[in-house]
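name: query_chain
kind: protein
chains: 1
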Amino acid sequence: MTVKRAEKVGEAIHEILSALLIKGVKDPRIGFTTITGVKLSDDLHLATIYFTVVGDEEEKRATADGLNSARGFLRRELSKNLRMRYVPD
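structure:
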């Protein structure tokens, strides 16, 4: 039962983050980025987000830095859209 819940929450996070990257994040470092997967821990406290970037290595590093700096904004927006007591890190 825990695995199914983790999969559902992972899919919801995937959809929300994809929409946020399209219209919510204004960081110019974040280029053409696609969320490819979300892996959650069994207790739903830690999420690993997998993404791909179109471009060379410098653009990929800049996008990773941009996403790391936007982590707080993205987590806050997730908390608004997910109805959970605790939003995964």
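note: The CA atoms of residues 68 and 74 lie 10 Å apart.
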